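User: Hey, quick favor. My workstation is busy. Could you predict this chain's structure for me?
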Amino acid sequence: MARPALWVPNDPVDLVRVEEGVEVVGNPRFAADWSSEVRGAYLPALLWQLLDRTPPGRPVRGVRDDNRTAILPERRVTVDEHEYFLAVKGCGAEYDAYEPVRLDAHRLRALCHDPALAARLDGVDGGPAAFIVGERWWGYAPYGGQAGDSALLALLASLRADRNQIAGFYLCPLVAAVRLPDRIARAASEFYWYRRYDGAYWQEVRLMPSNVRLFFHSPVTLGVDSGRVFSLFGLTSFDACERFLERLARSTLAAITLYARSLRRDAATGRYVGLDYDEVYLDKDAVIAPDGTLHFADLEGVEEFFSGGPEAVRERVEMQFYRNLYEATYALEAMALETWRAFGLGSSGRDRRRWVLDVLERALHADPYARVERTASGSRVEIRPAVDPDRLALSLEWASEEGE
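Assistant: No problem, here it is.
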């Protein structure tokens, strides 16, 4: 039986779902879930109102997640042992890009470079209002929206998966990448602070098992609010915590060994190619399912990287592992610390770390790509890539010692 998806209550978001003028690139694995109650683009209600409520649309009440994402908790999809709710990335920002205050009609009027649109804001209620702003954010995306290349890269990463995972690396799959109507894009581009974004506006409609992240960008995170996470996920016994930690360990190690797991030979070039991350991180770009399985959410940063030979492959595997190892260790340590506190297991860091290592070793027991190897003073992770494992295998340090 699938474990139900869970979401942390947050501020409501008023959206309008429109279908007219929308272009969609869908994921065929989830075609049945792109139903008449779901399909379309999701516009901030105020942006839609400024354009005289055209194209026609249906009101949707979402829940805020991060600054430009809303979740639709009533829309659920089950994949194997996990249930997911729908979430829309790129449906409007909540906060001003340059001040720690919420956007509202007054601030948006000051940003508007079209006098006719600005005049329509005069009679709008002054309360907070999410909005897609045509500021060129990070150099390539609209603030509160999504750029086409990012949305399509996320879809491509999702298409590489067996629905919700790639060789044990769990992800939040895209149901569709959606291009907003041109009229909406032109209007949004009239609102900006410094640099105008003139490209197409896209959204990602994706599946998420929860909105609990590791440390950043969630109303509740494992690192900061571990006690609330335990309550939310029903972790009321030591055995339940150990099972949760085992799934967290298995999925987190899969995330930091993704290049090895996805490695293949490119037929056209004869080189090795696998998946790695670019400007995305476990602490804010992944969410934790209620059973402990880490799911990577922001897939636009998951791309193919080529390696010319065995040494280059090992370098890429090692770089991915150590670049993300701190966040992986942080996740496991946060879980262990709260377990020790919740059940009064004492304060010995040595015992706690030994427990984590024991669980990690069990978690990887049947993993074909990685396993724990104990040493005289610490531990290492033995990694065997998906192709040429005897030639490309390597051993990387997990912990130097088990001391205090």
